[in-house]
Specification:
This protein is α/β, with parallel strands linked by helices. The protein is built from 8 helices and 8 strands; from the N terminus they run βαβαβαβαβαβαβαβα.
């Protein structure tokens, strides 16, 4: 049976890019949105791109959150807290949540090359405080641009996965590694997401200065596997 993965906030550029990449691997993708009709439209576009083998369904965020053992949060930071509060009673115990959120200043009308201060220390740590007991969290995928995810070529970069829960970390690393070209790296505790999230603002600045959309991170001196 195909692995079932929900993408909460899956109709934005990052969410649809992730849905496309993961659907190509044979995973069963549930695209969540505040608007179920919009989610189904996004799912239909991905089914058309991937072909007859695609397992992609669209639904309201709450249904998506309650329907899969792994859920990827692709919600813009500005709406993340309110959405997580609404979803809190809907998560199933044992669910693994993978948070991709970055607190960029663009969320409040500022430049995307600056970070917002988050009381908990990072967007991931804010998410942890808004999840119910029994739901595990990993932070990952903050440093891959949405445009790259929406394309077909390999994504030549490393993805750092941070979590205080080893099972969640392993699951996130396994999913991340499904994207061609990506190497998943163990980034240690969830608090290290503070560093990883801040790299996103740096990469956006590099993309702007060099007029590209593909700046990524590679770490040298580590095992290739």
């Amino acid at each position: 049976m195909a692995r079932k993965i929900s993408i909460i906030g899956g109709t934005g550029a990052e969410g649809t890019g992730l849905a496309y990449r993961l659907a190509k691997t044979g995973a069963h993708i549930l695209i969540g949105s505040r608007d179920a009709a919009r989610a189904e439209e996004a799912a239909q576009r991905i089914r058309e791109r991937v072909g007859s083998r695609a397992l992609v369904d669209g639904m309201e965020n709450g249904v998506a959150a309650a329907s899969a053992g792994v859920a990827i949060l692709a919600i813009p930071f500005a709406g993340a807290a309110s959405q997580l509060k609404q979803l809190k009673p809907l998560w199933k115990p044992g669910t693994i949540v993978i948070d991709t959120t970055v607190p960029l200043a663009a969320a409040v009308g500022g430049p995307a090359t600056r970070m917002l201060g988050v009381w908990q220390g990072s967007a991931a740590e804010q998410t942890r405080d808004l999840l119910p007991a029994g739901v595990s969290l990993a932070a990952a995928l903050q440093n891959i641009g949405a445009e790259l995810l929406g394309e077909d070529g390999p994504v030549e970069c490393d993805v750092i996965v941070c979590s205080d829960d080893e099972k969640a970390k392993e699951a996130a690393m396994e999913i991340v590694a499904l994207i061609p070209g990506v190497r998943a790296l163990n980034g240690g505790k969830l608090e290290n997401a503070r560093i990883v999230e801040s790299m996103t603002a740096l990469l956006i600045g590099l993309n702007i200065r060099y007029k590209v959309h593909s700046a990524g991170i590679r770490f040298t001196g580590l095992p290739l596997s």
